[in-house]
Amino acid sequence: MDKLFINGGNKLYGKISVNGAKNALLPVLAGVIMVDGMVTLKKVPKYSDVLAMCEILSNLGAKVNWHGSDLIIDSSTIEEHTITSQLAGSLRSSIFALGPLLCRHKIAKVAYPGGCEIGLRPIDIHLNGLRVMGTRIVEKNGYIYANGESMEGCDVTLSFASVGATENIMMAGVMTRGITRIFNPAKEPEIVDLQDFLNACGAKVSGAGTNMIYIEGVESLHGCIYEVIPDRIAGGTYLLMCAMCGGEIEIENFLPYHNQALLSKFSQSACKIDIKDDRIFVSSSGRLDSFIDVETAVYPGLPTDLQPQIMALQTVSNGYCLVVENLFESRFKHVPELIKMGADIKFRSNVCVIKGKEKLYGADVNSPDLRGGIALVMAGMKAEGYTTISGIELIDRGYYQIEKKLAPLGVDIKRIEK
Ligand code: UD1
Predict the structure, then answer these.
(1) Is 375 left (phi over 0), alpha (psi -120 to 50) or beta?
(2) Is 301 in the pocket of ligand 1 (CB under 6 A)?
(3) What is the pTM of this model?
(4) Which domains does the chain have, with CATH numbers?
(5) In the chain, what percentage of residues exceed pLDDT 90?
(6) Candidates 49, 53, 92, 163: which one to mutate for ligand 1, based on the most atoms within 8 Å of Cβ?
């Protein structure tokens, strides 16, 4: 297993560009299952989760090819309707394939999904929604057997605005006879992006990003050329890195209106932020006053996917900060690792209190999950001395070649291949 080796203490200078969003690409790749034709996705980073989703598509029978950074998928050859536990277990997004497989074949057999271990992560809201639409579902031996022959458009009200369930049910409605309306949907930008992709393929979806999504079933979908939105979590991560380490950077391909909750946290801070269209200029001394409190929420609230990175910044800010995690039960696994590096953090259940310290110190730490892992990279960049991070295959799920991305900013970081 590879490791990252960081010699900390450098400030950041230069320009960094945000790649396409992992959380937009994964549902779009599931949506490709419904298409009868060729889809070209432009400028796709080879996140390991994207590669895993490509493997799922290949196993279903699609022809998947890379042309530079363009991903070209011919899904007209998809015949299979099964996703095995070996494939599904590698990522959470395998469950997104359920709705599209039902549209394509009327039957699907999908193993329970894997993914980062940040909580229980049930799929009841996905399955309930599909059941309301008329799908017969049997759960047996780790598999979901679904039969969608009686599926019809109808009203589906989600008990919680789950991102994945919204995407799954939205896709299930795309080729289902009649009108499907989703009430209490998630409103994340990635859901609007999925709507845009599906409509580019001939679907009739509207309302994504509002309180109700409206889907008129169509007979078929055709191919298209599409580029997903920039990754707001990666963009936010780079901003937090500069705030924490100090320096002056320009972040390109950063959509400020996707990151309002994070940007508002900086309005009272000494970190200077200038926004010009889709570019943001950040300058920081590297020692800010603590954010008073940080509470994760569904969009447009503060994303849970930025909670570990914000916590890393708070470990070296001036004063106390309270962090409340409201989305996932086990999303503080980075805390013991940050403590190994000298952070002062007390935690109970879903609340942490962080007392900012002057310094962190390099240590051998282990990445517990994707975002917790990048928070450790940040801590290593700030710390005095050397930090070695293992478990970095989890970071590779959503940050492509992070060491190559950060080195040009002056970060002394290397990947040690085993
Ligand atoms: C997506 C993102 C993930 C992000 C999360 C919350 C992708 C690929 N992943 O994950 O990066 O952290 O949104 O913004 O886009 N829940 C249920 N039952 C369900 C579904 C969800 O109880 O059927 C619960 C979950 O356990 C969790 C909460 O709802 O507590 C939010 O989950 P959800 O919005 O579904 O997140 P994901 O789609 O898994």
Answers:
(1) alpha
(2) no
(3) 0.97
(4) 3-19+230-416 (3.65.10.10), 22-226 (3.65.10.10)
(5) 92
(6) 163
